[in-house]
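Re: glutamine structure - here you go.
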Amino acid sequence: MFVFSSIEQYHAQLQEEAITCLQAVEYYLQKIKATSHLNAFIEVYADEALQKAKELDEKRKAGNSLGKLHGIVVGLKDVICYKDHKLSASSNILKKFTSIYSATAVERLLAEDAIIIGNLNCDEFAMGSTNENSAYGKVLNALDETRVPGGSSGGPAVAVQAGLCMVSLGSDTGGSVRQPADFCGIVGLKPTYGRVSRYGLIAYASSFDQIGIFGNNIPDVAVVLEVMAGADEYDSTASLKKVELYSSQLKDNKKHRFAYFEVALNHPSLDPEFASAIKKKIELLKKEGHEVKPVEFELLDYIVPAYYELTTAEASSNLSRYDGIKYGYRTLTPALELTEFYKQTRSAGFGKEVKRRIMLGTFVLSSGYYDAYFTRAQKVRKLLTDKMQLIFKDFDFILLPTSPTTAFKTGEKMNDPIAMYLADIYTVMANLAGIPAISLPLFWHSNGMPFGLQVMSNRFNELSLLQISTRLMKKPFRSIERTEVPGL
Ligand code: GLN
């Protein structure tokens, strides 16, 4: 039986001829089929993936030099363009749309010999925390099918959690990689804003969006980041900063300075088991000689409102392009004039949550309310960014929970959007401040579900973030039991 534990181990097996890329792809295709009820995949590119695997096996046998991601089986969230493949942001308004180019991130993975196996379910336009807002239906958490996998990247998280691909790409605007990683018990990284090109990523809130990575371990995530990151002539917000070779520098033995927010650990919404697990971890870090100190953080209650005001404002502008003329779905109801045509197309094409956000966003931007909401939220964003810079003068990392609770039960929060939004309390600050953050699967709750520790570092400090994550992941609570498929 093929067992994937890391890219390094898989590459060693390929070199020893213990396995081929073709066998690996065949294994994943069978497993995807056997777990199709999880609804993680929207489309599986079976023939293409098999063909690519054969080519890679030949390339290896011919002794040609191999890409860093040789034969790595990758899934893509349905918001990332892959040329000549369907892309819909899990929305009816884009059903039948086909990408005419590939995202820069995807081009770079392919250039290093990755195999794209399919595209993955998510909340419509990446808006949500449970993957229940998808036009393709909900995704199930493979550890407990009565629970959600988190969102908006529920499909990419479950694909890695259930072992349906080796790594996957998601997008993180306010936590959509870290929170589902936390709910599913895997690693989820959101890089610094501008570290990975957004060219070919469907925009939700452009000043927040980043492509992120799901994986089983830190070295896998590190090598994928190394391949994808860097300047891009198609995205002026992609930083020109040199990309470090993360994957070959993961070891460090330094003593570090960690900050944590007492107000976050004592927050009434936080599950008490989370608080005690993180406090124990803090004591352990101190014992190992690190400096770990509480810092004042007075902005906690303002950041979720600021995030939702700014992201809905940006979303209302970004989503104006889906008008039935340029892209995707167009109403068949005869409309006599243009405004009516737009109205009918957009009313039928967008789902409930997307409509709610467009309305919120246009309200926030409307004259008379602009200063009261948009401008004030921008001020909160600036205060938060300044506060973070101040903290990073004295500390290397900030420790936080990723989410206040373990994975919700399906339907639990669907009728209470405010409660759903408030659960983003710990993830949105990294996007508001543009800093990198990672969710590490370190803990298990007495309810049987995993939960993570979130670590944040200063802008472009991905290397030290990945180094400390490697050390923190050394002694996981208990390793994830993979969902096994009988007969495979
Ligand atoms: N839950 C957040 C939202 O709904 C995060 C979404 C995201 O990161 N794409 O906006």
